[in-house]
Give the backbone structure.
Amino acid sequence: MNERILPPQGVSDIAKVQQKDDTPGFTGGMASADDMHFIELLRRGDEAAFMSLIEQYHASMLRLAQIFVSTRPLAEEVVQEAWLGVLQGLKRFEGRSSLKTWIFRILTNCAKTRAQREGRSIPFSALSDFDPDHNEPAVDPEFFFASDHPDSPDRWISLPKNWDEMPEDRLLSEETSGQIRQAIALLPAGQREVITLRDIEGWSAPEVCNFLTISETNQRVLLHRARSRVRQVLEQYFGEGRRA
Amino acid sequence: MMKRAREFFNRLLARTVKKTELEVTTSEVELTCRDIVELVTDYLEQALLPRTRGKFEEHIAGCEGCTNYVEQVRKTIDLLHRLAIEPVLPATKQELLKVFRRLQQG
């Protein structure tokens, strides 16, 4: 296991160059005073500080790494590599991005490098997500009356179900989680990144725009498609969302 | 090449497009259920102009289907966030701590 966490080539360079967040209009891009204090503790070798960093970000880094590489063990290696990059880059951290952004930049750089080596096409080209082939309506048109229907144009033919009426253990089952994970895995890459960061990890919209360098509007379009798709999968899974 | 470009353009035209904010705010049209499902993310993201927001809320107040739909999307977000509950294994922590100590010494 130990040879896996030897310095991978180029990681320290990655840590060096990726420190700048200057997306216009994003004021939360710089390191906070707390971040700088934290960095100081880490530089001094404070183990509790490092542990709390792991508690806070490790699982999240693992999930994000899996957007890029194909297997969980590979993702684990990528995260190990990223932590090493973080620790080696500590001395050079200047606070031009938040600590969190800096850590996740290192993570995605490691993950992308690994994905390339693995021969996987690198996700994140938001552009490909704007291909009209991906531009499905949020809900299948067959759920609505036609636009020229005399009484109910563009209204529901059968109403979506009230999920509150479903038993909670079904809603929160491991199988439901599996359905969601699978639905996300099948999304185009940009959508996958945005929904993972926004809805699973709980990042704010400006954080995600800043991190992925996409506009607010694009972020929202990707989020919309991704959420709509996951909802659709869930509705199918929960049974028919139809009433007679 | 031309054929491809034409096909691309036709697909663009044929796709379902939601009403733009401009259309909604400058006209007296009411929103339909089909509009609601396309505007729901902008609504939840607080990205609608006040007038559109008003029309959105007016519609869902009188429409059980759309009320359920918006709730489904909210629930979907909750369920997504639950995937973040994942503890870090003690062995992983110990391993990373070793790396940390080694780097401190070196």
